[in-house]
Design goal:
Blueprint lengths: L7 H8 L3 H9 L1 H10 L4 E6 L8 E4 L5 H9 L18 E6 L2 E5 L3 E6 L4 E6 L13 E10 L2 E13 L2 E8 L4 E4 L3 E2 L12 E3 L2 E5 L5 E6 L5 E5 L11 E5 L5 E6 L4 E9 L5 E10 L1 H7 L6 E8 L2 E9 L5 E9 L5 E7 L5 E5 L15 H7 L1
Antiparallel strand pairs: 1-2, 1-24, 3-4, 4-5, 5-6, 7-8, 8-9, 9-10, 9-11, 12-13, 13-14, 14-15, 16-17, 17-18, 18-19, 20-21, 21-22, 22-23
């Protein structure tokens, strides 16, 4: 019966009706796995970077579903739980957003925020990661690692570079400490792109400036290897992203200047060597023109997540106003949906609802307190 519910917010409301229903959902991992496969978690909105001195803004998607609307009303999407200093938010900027968490950074620390539960964890910066580096040291970016079946534990991967070397550090909420890994030689000369990493199936993929390659950092083994890019990708345009299909396969999506979208999926040839297998070349100009009522400008791939490509398209109107549209494209149906548009930049982070901890059994204890807290 629960599998017939339309989405995750509806399941939350049903499960919290009584303790026995909540216990049924919490105690069955196979049920949760099947429900996720049948009903992917909904996209609730986009976090937008509007001002480097202010907290990010949240733009909710205007859905007619009352359960999704209820989830939005209950969350801290204005990020009021972030700590303030001297009456300001001390320049918090988003560096990652996944699994219900938003990872933010300022000059002093990181913050992992779960708007649905109002939970905030302030994480210290990994100062020891600079050891053995020179003047060219720099932080490249940060990524969140968490598990849908263990939302109480999270990890943060920090990637930094120094000339032709790269190093990773991993923070664990269980030890509340950073594990610093050795420097690895990757070649090049400070040519890894800043804040351009993509997390796919537990590995971080990081592209180079002007090179048809990226590095893959396996966060389980910390092995670093080179991965080639399709030759058709214009690496100077910075208009491509690695991501994952709905079934978890590594893919590359590239938006060309002529509004053609190219998709490749990683496979192997007859000798077992990794290759990029072309999938589709889509002409998006007519469809985007329909959504934007004729406006066409610069198309950019924002993210590729769980079989969806998130795109931005910005242009200058005849009266000199910058307008930006955010769109989503399903790699299965190839249908485009307009998400939001307005007079803002094209930096955005899709926020997808995660399973609330109250629906997952942590230690087999009674569900009474969880029901009261969730209400």
């Amino acid at each position: 019966i629960f599998l017939r519910l339309p989405n995750l917010p509806a399941l939350v409301r049903a499960a919290l009706t009584c303790r026995s229903w909540l216990g049924a959902v919490r105690s069955s991992r196979p049920f949760r796995r099947l429900f996720r496969a049948l009903h992917p978690a909904p996209l609730l909105g986009l976090f937008l970077e509007v001002d480097e001195d202010a907290a990010p803004s949240f733009a909710p998607l205007r859905r007619t579903d009352p359960d999704v609307a209820a989830a939005l009303r209950c969350g801290d999407f204005f990020l009021t739980s972030l700590p303030v200093q001297d009456g300001a938010y001390t320049g918090w900027g988003i560096v990652d957003c996944r699994d219900g968490y938003i990872l933010l950074r300022n000059m002093f620390s990181l913050a992992a925020v779960n708007p649905m539960t109002w939970a905030v964890d302030i994480i210290p910066m990994p100062d020891d990661v600079r050891a053995g580096s020179g003047l060219s040291f720099g932080f490249l970016g940060f990524h969140l690692l968490s598990s849908e079946e263990n939302p109480w534990s999270l990890r943060v991967v920090c990637v930094c570079a120094d000339v032709s070397r790269v190093r990773a550090a991993v923070f664990s909420s269980e030890t509340w400490d950073w594990a610093i890994h050795p420097w690895v030689e990757i070649g090049g000369d400070n040519s890894l792109k800043y804040n351009a990493g993509m997390l796919v199936d537990g590995s971080v993929y990081w592209p180079f400036h002007g090179e048809h390659r990226m590095i893959r950092i396996n966060t389980a083994t910390m092995e670093v290897i080179n991965v080639d890019l399709p030759l058709q990708v214009d690496v100077e345009s910075c208009n491509y992203n690695a991501g994952e299909t709905r079934d978890g396969q590594l893919c590359i999506v590239y938006a060309a200047d002529d509004f053609h979208l190219h998709v490749w999926i990683r496979g192997v040839d007859g000798d077992g060597i990794g290759i990029w297998v072309p999938q589709n070349i889509l002409s998006l100009s007519a469809e985007i023109g329909r959504v934007t009522r004729g406006w066409l400008g610069h198309l950019r791939v924002v993210q590729v997540r769980s079989g969806y490509v998130y795109l931005s398209m910005k242009c200058i109107t005849p009266v000199g106003i910058l307008r930006c549209w955010f769109l989503s494209l399903s790699l299965e149906t190839m249908k485009i949906e307009s998400l939001i548009h307005g007079t803002f930049g094209d930096s955005a982070y899709p926020y997808i609802m995660a399973w609330p901890p109250c629906l997952i059994c942590h230690d087999g204890s009674s569900t009474g307190h969880e029901v009261e807290a969730s209400h």
